[in-house]
C-alpha cells in the first residue's frame, strides 16, 4: 500500500480545514500510519507462523488461529485507516466541483460576470454540509472499528494462552500460545489510544463548526433586523448587457 500517495492527496485538504482537522491529520500520519508502517507490520508479521498449539492434529492449529483471529489486528487497522481518511477526499472533490462550475460560468458569461462563489474553498452552503458529513462519517468509522477490535477479545488485551475447545478437528481442549503477546499488547493499546485522540478531535471540530454556524447566523439575523428591507431584481450578466443596449438606443443621436 502506498501511504505516501495517500498523504500527498490528503495534504490538499489542509487548505480547507480547521485547526482541529490539521491536528487530526498530523496524529493520523505520525502516530498511526508511521507506527503502522515502521513497527506494527513487523510485530504482526509472524503471528500465524508462531501461533503454537500443544497438538499435532493436522489442521487444528490453523482452525484455532482462525477461531481466535477472524481478522488480523494489522489488517483491521489498515482498513480503518483507509475508511477514516477517505471522507476527507469528499471535501476536495466538492471544492473541485465549485471551481469547475465557476470556470464554466466565466466562459459562458464573460470575465466581468459576478462570481458564483466569493471563495470556492470557504465552508458555506453545500460545502459546509459536505465537511460536516465527512466528520460524522469519520467519527462513526472510528467508533465502529474500536468496537470490532474490542469484540474480538472482549477487551483490548491479548492473553498469552488461549484455549481452543469444541472446534473441529481439534481433540478436546487445546492450549495455544500467541507469539510475542506483550509486544503486541503494547502496540494495540498505542493504536487504540491514537484512535481515541482522533475521536476527541473530531468531536471537538463538529461542535466548533456548529457553534460557529450558530454565531454567524445570529449576527446576520441581528444585522438584518437593524437594516431596512429592500427588494431588488436579481442581477445577471445577460440583464446587464440588455439594459446597456437599451440605454444606447434611447439616447438621441447628434446631428452634425
Automatic annotation (TrEMBL):
It is found in: Cell junction, Gap junction; Cell membrane. It is a multi-pass membrane protein. The chain crosses the membrane at residues 20-39, 77-97, 128-149, 187-211. This is Gap junction protein. Residues 42-75 form the Connexin N-terminal domain. Gene3D superfamilies: Gap junction channel protein cysteine-rich domain. The keyword Metal-binding does not apply. Keywords: Cell junction, Cell membrane, Gap junction, Membrane, Transmembrane, Transmembrane helix. Residues 141-209 form the Connexin cysteine-rich domain. It comes from Regulus satrapa. The gene is Gjb3.
Amino acid at each position: 500500500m502506498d501511504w505516501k500517495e495517500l498523504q500527498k492527496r490528503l495534504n490538499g485538504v489542509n487548505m480547507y480545514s480547521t485547526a482541529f482537522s490539521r491536528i487530526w491529520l498530523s496524529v493520523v500520519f505520525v502516530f498511526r500510519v508511521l507506527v503502522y508502517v515502521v513497527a506494527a507490520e513487523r510485530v504482526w508479521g509472524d503471528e500465524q507462523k508462531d501461533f503454537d498449539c500443544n497438538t499435532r492434529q493436522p489442521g487444528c492449529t490453523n482452525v484455532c488461529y482462525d477461531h481466535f483471529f477472524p481478522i488480523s489486528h494489522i489488517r483491521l487497522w489498515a482498513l480503518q485507516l483507509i475508511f477514516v481518511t477517505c471522507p476527507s477526499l469528499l471535501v476536495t472533490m466538492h471544492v473541485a466541483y465549485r471551481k469547475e462550475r465557476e470556470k464554466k460560468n466565466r466562459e459562458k458569461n464573460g470575465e466581468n460576470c459576478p462570481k458564483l462563489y466569493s471563495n470556492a474553498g470557504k465552508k458555506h452552503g453545500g460545502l459546509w454540509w459536505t465537511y460536516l458529513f465527512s466528520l460524522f462519517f469519520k467519527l462513526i468509522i472510528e467508533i465502529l472499528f474500536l468496537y470490532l477490535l474490542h469484540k474480538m477479545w472482549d477487551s483490548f488485551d491479548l492473553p498469552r494462552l488461549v484455549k481452543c475447545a469444541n472446534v473441529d478437528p481439534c481433540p478436546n481442549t487445546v492450549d495455544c500460545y500467541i507469539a510475542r503477546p506483550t509486544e503486541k499488547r503494547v502496540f494495540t493499546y498505542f493504536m487504540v489510544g491514537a484512535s481515541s485522540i482522533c475521536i476527541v478531535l473530531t468531536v471537538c471540530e463538529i461542535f466548533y463548526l456548529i457553534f460557529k454556524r450558530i454565531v454567524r447566523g445570529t449576527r446576520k439575523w441581528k444585522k438584518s433586523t437593524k437594516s431596512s428591507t429592500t427588494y431588488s431584481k436579481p442581477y445577471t450578466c445577460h440583464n446587464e448587457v440588455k439594459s446597456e443596449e437599451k440605454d444606447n438606443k434611447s439616447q438621441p443621436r447628434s446631428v452634425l
